[in-house]
Structures are given as structure tokens and as C-alpha cells.
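Journal club prep, notes for RB
We'll compare a predicted complex against what the paper describes. Inputs for the 4'-deoxy-4'-aminopyridoxal-5'-phosphate case:
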Amino acid sequence: MSRIAYVNGQYVPHLSAAVHIEDRGYQFSDGVYEVIAIHKGKLIDMDGHMVRLSRSLSELEIAWPVGPRSLDMIIRQVIRRNRIRDGIVYMQITRGVAPRNHAFPAHHDSALVVTAKRFPPFDFDAANKGVDVITTPEIRWQRRDIKTVSLLGNCLAKEEAARAGAYEAWFVEGDGMITEGTSSNAWIITTDGQLITRNTSNSILNGITRLSILKIAKEQGVKFVERAFSLEEAKSAKEAFTSSTTSFVKPVIRIDGDPVGDGKVGPLSTKLLAYYGVHMKAQAA
Ligand code: PMP
């Protein structure tokens, strides 16, 4: 079955889907996006993703291309037309097409693209596999709270990780503090069992998975604190993991080649991943 994409009002074959060369997303990375997991045909944490999308649009003064209810319908239509049970839906909204000029165009004709991709059924046990992360200097802009398609700094760091044979790169600021991963949020668990992830500010993207994990921690009585933590602290942590819509809770067993704790997937990471699986399954029921 061939894939179908939604592009500015039309459902078209994925292979021939295209946007104009003067789309501001293409020329200036002037756009935002969301990635939502689909489990058993259901959208996971849809409300959270829509709230974040709305915030990203408003921070950049990009108009909604269609109303939120129409967008919801388009997303479900793309999932249906691609017959996705497990996978992701990707949506991107840019400021639209205009003659190249840095300042905003007078029009508010934002452009919308929605695609979906099928994954094998999510296997939460198989996901509980430890990975390596490397660290890299934080070189990105100062509005990382906006989920913009402007991801060059993230791409450079992910490529560095790939070349090092690592799963992810965590960014480290000049003062030694970790911000987040190239496409995930960073977490550590201290030797006394406290869960730590960076507090929200302009420095990180407030991951929807991050929010769900914090909710789970609260429900399960896991001690947690939202604050900045250093690379040094991460290296002497008992456990570490990185979180995102597509990787869930991904245990980190080495940072820059040094083992975290005993270098094995730890019990709290395992427990949080299992609860995250329950959280997803509950929405897919
Ligand atoms: N930080 C960055 C830079 C990301 O790209 C992502 C993934 N979109 C995340 C964090 C995690 O966000 P989420 O849990 O919403 O996927």
C-alpha cells in the first residue's frame, strides 16, 4: 500500500508530495512541528501535543493553517488512509509561501503538512535496552522551548553521536550543566534514588514524554526534582535515561564511554518504562 501525505488541503501520494521552493520553512526554517505516537490506532497524549503546538505557533506568531478541530480530523484521516496501528504522525506548520524577505509576509496563509509512518508493534520489553550517549557543547539558539523545525544544531550533534556509535548526544552548557538530548530530554537518578530532570525554561523543550514521566513518578511516589544537573553529576549517577515520544524511557548505560552506575539498565528506569507502557496502553484501550 502506498503512503499518503496531507499537503495544504490535499491528500497526495507520499512519493510526489511537495511544497513550494519559497515556503518559509524551506528558506528560513520558519515553522514548527509535532510528532505524536500512535498505539493500536490511538493517538497518545494528543491533548499535550496540541497544547504545545498552540504555544509554539503563538510564540512565533504563526497563524493556525486550519482550526484545531480540523487539524485533529486531518491527522486522523492521514492515520486512517495509511492504515497505521503503531507508529507516528508528523505534522509541520510553516509561515507559508512568500517572496524571500526575512520580515514576516503580510499574509497569514500558513502551510500544513501531515505524514504518518508505520512501526512494528511497540515492544516495551525490547525497549528496555541500555544505550550510550555522548556529550557535546550546547551551540543552539536560546528558544529551545519552541518546537521549531530549525534543528541544525540538533542534527550536527546527532551526527556526532552516530559517528561515535552512540544513540544520542546530550548538550552541555559552558557552566557544565546538561540541557537535553538532540531529540530527547535527559534524566538521572541519584545514588539516593532521586529522579532529576531539568526544569522548564527557554533552555529545553518541555517533552510530552517528560510530562508523562513526571506524572507517573508522582503517582508512584518516586521522589523527583526538576532542576539543572551537571555532566559531573550525571557521570556519578546511579541510573540515567533519555525520553521522547519515539524512544519512551531509554536507559543510558554509558556517558562519553564511562559507565553510569554499574553500567547496566537500572531498576527505576525499568520501572518507569513499564509504567510508561501502561500509560500508553491505557490510552489505546
Ligand atoms: N527535546 C528535544 C530537542 C526534542 O527534539 C524532543 C523530541 N521532540 C524532546 C526533547 C522530547 O519531546 P517529546 O517527549 O515531546 O517527544
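Talking point for the session: The chain has two domains: 4-120, 125-284.
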